[in-house]
Design brief:
5-stranded antiparallel β-sheet, Alpha-Beta Plaits, globular, binds flavin-adenine dinucleotide, alpha+beta
Length: about 550
Amino acid sequence: MNATLSRRPLRRFWGWGVACEHLTQEESARIGMMVQMLGGQITDRTEPQVSDFTLPAPRIAPPAALAAMFSDTPLDRLNHALGKSYADLARMWLRQVPHVPDWVAYPDDEQAVIDILDWASRHNVAVIPYGGGSSVCGGVEAAVGSSYAAAVSLDMERLNRVLEVDPTSRAARIQAGALGPELEAQLKPHGYTLRHYPQSFEFSTLGGWIVTRAGGHYATLMTHIDDLVESTRMVTPSGVCASRRLPASGAGPSQDRMVLGSEGTLGVVTEAWMRLQERPRYRANASVRFTDYKQGVQCVRALAQSGLYPSNCRLLDPMETVFSGVGDGSAAVMVLGFESADHPMNEWMRRALEVVRDHGGSYDAESVERSMRDDGGEEHRSGTAGAWRQAFLRMPYWRDPAVGNGLIMDTFETATTWDRFEAFYKGVRKDVAQAVQQATGHPAFVSCRFTHIYPDGPAPYFTIAALGSAQGDVASALAAWREIKQAANEAVIKHGGTITHHHAVGRDHRPGYEQETPPLYRQMLQAAKATVDPQGILNPGVLIDPRDRQVGITGALGRT
Ligand SMILES: Cc1cc2nc3c(=O)[nH]c(=O)nc-3n(C[C@H](O)[C@H](O)[C@H](O)COP(=O)(O)OP(=O)(O)OC[C@H]3O[C@@H](n4cnc5c(N)ncnc54)[C@H](O)[C@@H]3O)c2cc1C
């Protein structure tokens, strides 16, 4: 049952992390408290096992020459059936996985990717590129409709090497299937880092980051992976499309920009040249408290427009401080940080703290001073910033049992301009809280933090925690989630935000994407897709439909 062609440590197919890792006693107690606080009860539900699932036989045989790279074991197929959204976890707990790929292919190299796409194009087989499978919007689910002969999940894990480092230009050629820790471990001996740390860092890949336009470490300037990409190489059913290594170019619409955000619909990214950073030696950190959230927001706006460009500037609203364990809900907290490999950041921090004081923020001056003296040390991992970081890293592990106990724990993220933010924040929270109350009969806890900030607006990230069902019934909670997710999609668009700042469109955000973009633009994308993928085999139903096929909204939100 546990046979797999994967060469990586065995993943927990129904949740987050590797299969052998478990929560600490303290963490389990914390989940229990949370479930009870929301009015639920801890149930001793059995975790999903591979043997709980009956999978249909694969509908097509792989080509003989490539067969050694194809797996149809239940574990491999289940591991690639869904991403890691709330709805994905809930469906795993329910043992309801309606779109299992017929096969999982593990190409050894780029030529194998070319051969697989060629075979799939000729046999009407849908291909779903797969990086770490951490999609939270239905990006890797094989919900491709009934017009395909079969569906193959194309797992890029064997293309996971750093191939070249150019220290002069400070860039590296990295294969797309490298997970965050894999690429960082290979860059470290060269003294470099990519410094792209999404919360899913451990289990997401360079290729996934590029095609979903992932948001990472930096709160300002290099916020998206886009800013770190120097050039890309993508295999399409019509041939290989590679861009030149250039620091910048004004030659027509950017080729790399077609790849960024393409979500596996135009081709399979096999490698990219990425801009690197030196490891930071100088840091300055502060945890700031605002008794008035509005003043905190104004302070962040002033910082975003100051030209100081902090690397970290996350404003947690009072409810978010409770979720993160860094406050009691009586105040907002801003985690502020500067870093550099080249020069001390003390003057930047001192100026930022003047801005903070002007907006009524308070902080522990001694701890800020310590962080500035602690060149290269661990001060930034202690205190409020450290507690927040620890909760940030462990949160995905806590979600698994919470979902199994009937809680709805979900997040959605967006961006909007400063002039609209106040009304946006109020409107979105109100609409979502109402939707939760209506769908579940229970109150919602809706919190917000800024993940990234820009001179013209923030990227707010909302977390919803609610009791989906008092009896811990996951099916009722999932049904309620469908209504809540639709309401959240509508709320961010209605109040003036984007459907996604960095989680991508996938399947679950398509309704919002279709409201956000003009039909003519989506037709341009379809035309581009028809050129590189004339049979429409690549990730059908994600982002857009192939030109001549109606896949529509499928997956967790749509028809099954
Ligand atoms: C707990 C948690 C925390 C998260 N935190 C963040 C965060 O901080 N920032 C953020 O931006 N996102 C975050 N995400 C979302 C997710 O991790 C990102 O979207 C990530 O970029 C996906 O990478 P992946 O390698 O896991 O891709 P997958 O989930 O495997 O795939 C995502 C999409 O990319 C396509 N794809 C994957 N690899 C390739 C390739 N080589 N070529 C072409 N298409 C490909 C897939 O077909 C799919 O459409 C989080 C998710 C979870 C579950």
